[in-house]
Amino acid sequence: MRKKASFPTAIPLFIGIIAVSFSSIFVKWASAPASIQGMYRLLFTVLLMLPFIGPYWSELKSLSFKKASMLFASGFFLALHFLLWMGSLKLTTVSSSTIILALEPVFIVFGAFILYKERTSRVSMLGMGVAIVGAVLIGWGDIGVSRDNLIGDMLSVFGTLAVSVHMLIGQKMITQVSSFIYSFVVFVSAVVVFAVYNLFTATPFIGYPGKDWLMFLLLAVVPTVFGHLLFNWLLQYVSATTISMSILGEPVGSSLLAFLLLGEQMTWFQIIGGLLAISGLVVFLNAGRLSRKAIGSQVGEPLKSA
């Protein structure tokens, strides 16, 4: 059962959206392979978390084999997500790649219903539909027909499916372990998966320029600590579906940053789509309050503030 938040969850969700929007920019600025970027991104994040592990050490040592296996599975799918999605950015534009992330809440909703019998209200579905239409418009002008672009789009699709599985496992495990231990073990597991992959493919671990190492560190601090780590922590207060819907803001932020920092152009379709995506996101995040208001008006009762 999820905890009741004593603060507006929209604030950390918004911070997380801004943070993850920088991820594609840093990936584009680095020349290292996606598997190396993903490995060092998470390794540096683990190192940043190590000084704070003291209070959680006993919990870490007492993890059962079943829990550890589930956490490793979550880490495996997170690594797979980074490998596929970051790889897609090498083949297509930021807008084309991040737009595919709009599929995440669709995968999450179906997965949450099948696994956890979690239902989504009509208002939430309406907000989701508007946001997805908006997200599709953002990348409509950039989805290319070249072979590389098509491969990049497919990599992003499978990467989105992988992160959806990661989020669904996380929704279950966050009720059984602390959010810190969940994130720490998942990130360590993903680092191990990346290391094995790089060894197997003979990808060099060192020899990259200084700019790449700076990007590895920025990927760890900005989109991982203030993005994924924050989202993992929020899973104890909100559903995986809500987190995935919030991430719909990433195509908006990433497309704008790509325009400003990478010179990638935005069409009117993308601008209109961004406005629709934000509007749908607002409706989704306020679905519970809107539904209660509708019910209250039907029975003639005033709506109580949350």
Automatic annotation (TrEMBL):
Main location: membrane
Domain named EamA: residues: 13-139, 151-284
Keywords of this entry: Membrane, Transmembrane, Transmembrane helix
Cell location: Endomembrane system
Keyword Disulfide bond listed: no
Transmembrane intervals: 7-27, 39-58, 70-88, 94-116, 123-143, 149-169, 181-201, 213-235, 242-262, 268-287
Highest taxon listed in the record's lineage: Bacteria
Xref: InterPro entries: EamA_dom, EmrE-like
Membrane topology per record: Multi-pass membrane protein
Record carries keyword Signal: no
Family note: Belongs to the EamA transporter family.
Name of the molecule in the record: DMT family transporter
